[in-house]
Specification:
Helix content: 40-55%
Oligomer: single chain
Shape: elongated
Strand content: 15-25%
Number of strands: 16
Order of helices and strands: EEHHEHEEEEHEHEHEEEEEHEHEHHHHH
Structural class: alpha+beta
């Protein structure tokens, strides 16, 4: 590669009043960059292996940040599946520590609580309230068995969960009061138990009791963490009495009349349930309430913390890669001792020598960072594609701009930090000793 380096002459006064000419080499930034590139091209295999640690580290960070953003979006979409006006009441104390987790599955939500919440005078801003029980049980049709999730709900479930039927109908309030043995099934349940046959009007057995299928839901997937494709929905009284054998509820699903009424609805619901449970002042609630905004914020914070933790773990490989770069640059300084001595002898300053080796280290890491970013994007895309195809989750590929910024800054910073010491070692070499080096 041909390069033009400017040589200029300077007249310096001598001790006897004369002058002498001193030849110096003026290194422009272009010359420094070109010299650095030539130094890297001289040993392509060594340069490639040195970059490998940076490539892997940056790729790992890009994959983690991309998938982390995708998972966060997926989780928030699931949470928002119930609607922004939805409020969930759960049994037991709100878990604040390990000792509270045993309280989460307690039996504190009863029929009297449902009746109290349904009274308009108690919670005036409440639009709807639905009790919910759920659990797994084996369903059987003509010797074929499948273990779906059983949901016991009221006639309000299609409105609160935005469900529709492909064929048939949902059960009515009268079916709930009469503990009717009717069921709506999801597409996966139909596939496993009925094959391609029409399930409407046929029966399936759960816990020895026959349920008549009155509705078939189309494929829908996850709705707020519930997969209704694998679900059988029955009246909640029927589920309590004949399937689960319980007299309490696992959830209350509330819906405020308007979004601006959510805070008042929550406050009134808390007062109503405390009164129903006869809790004295100062006693902790034996239930807890979550709004969709609360849940979304909490889960978003959790996924962000996990992503940052994984990024920190992936960054360890960058430290290892940086140490490798420093080691290789020190070897390069030793190999090019004569070159350094020659350049100093013709007038190159310590600053110019130091700048050249810093540029080499930075170029090395920057190139590794670019390759790592491209590799990370490809891997993240393939992982999200595999999750959608084989795991059934709608994990979309996301590449946040912050990932590119982090990759660029980190790779450049590593080049500067770990290239500084070798560059300093090169700059402080004595030109006379360097020229004598063999």
């Amino acid at each position: 590669m041909a390069r033009t380096i400017t040589i200029f002459f300077e007249r310096t006064p001598t001790a006897v009043g004369g002058s002498r000419e001193v030849h110096k080499i003026a290194m422009t930034p272009t010359d420094t960059a070109a010299t650095a590139i030539e130094g890297l091209r001289t040993h392509p295999l060594r340069s490639s292996l040195t970059m490998l640690g940076i490539v892997i580290g940056i790729a790992a960070i890009i994959v983690v940040m991309s998938l982390g953003a995708g998972v966060r979006d997926l989780v928030l979409a699931q949470v928002q599946g119930l609607g922004s006006k939805t409020i969930v009441v759960l049994p037991g104390r709100h878990p604040r520590g390990p000792s509270d987790f045993a309280q989460v599955l307690s039996e504190t939500l009863k029929e009297k609580d449902l009746a109290a919440l349904e009274k308009k005078a108690n919670v005036p801003t409440l639009s709807r309230v639905m009790p919910l029980v759920f659990g797994a049980a084996t369903a059987e049709v003509s010797g074929q068995t499948y273990r779906p999730t059983i949901f016991g709900a009221s006639e309000l479930i299609p409105q609160l969960f935005d469900l529709v039927v492909e064929r048939g109908n949902f059960f009515s309030a009268e079916d709930v009061r009469a503990t009717s043995s009717v069921a709506i099934i999801g597409s996966k349940v139909r596939e496993e138990l009925f094959g391609s046959d029409d399930p409407i009007g046929r029966t399936l057995k759960i816990k020895g009791r026959s349920f008549r299928v009155i509705g078939l839901m189309p494929a829908k997937g996850q709705v707020s963490f519930f997969n209704f494709d694998e679900a059988v929905i029955v009246p909640y009284r029927t589920a309590q009495q004949y399937i689960f054998g319980i007299k309490y509820f696992h959830r209350f699903i509330l819906e405020a009349a308007r979004e601006q009424d959510i805070a008042r609805t929550v406050a009134d619901a808390i007062l109503t349930l405390r009164e129903s449970h006869r809790l004295e002042s100062g006693t902790r609630d034996d239930f807890f309430i979550e709004t969709q905004a609360d849940l979304a914020a909490r889960l978003g914070q959790i996924t962000t913390i996990l992503t940052l933790f994984l990024v920190a773990v992936a960054a360890i490989s960058l430290v290892v890669g940086g140490i490798g770069i420093m080691n290789i640059m020190l070897v390069s300084v030793t190999d090019r001792t004569c070159e350094i001595g020659l350049r100093k002898a013709v007038g190159s300053t310590n600053k110019e020598i130091m700048g050249q080796f810093l540029v080499e280290a930075t170029l090395l890491t920057l190139l590794g960072g670019i390759i790592g970013m491209l590799l990370g994007i490809v891997v993240a895309f393939l992982v999200s594609l595999a999750v959608r195809r084989f795991a059934g989750f709608s994990l979309e590929f996301t590449f946040p701009l912050s990932a590119a910024v982090v990759g660029f800054l980190v790779s450049t910073g590593i080049g500067l930090v770990f290239g500084l010491y070798p560059a300093f070692q090169a700059a402080k070499k004595s030109p006379i000793e360097a020229l004598r080096y063999e």
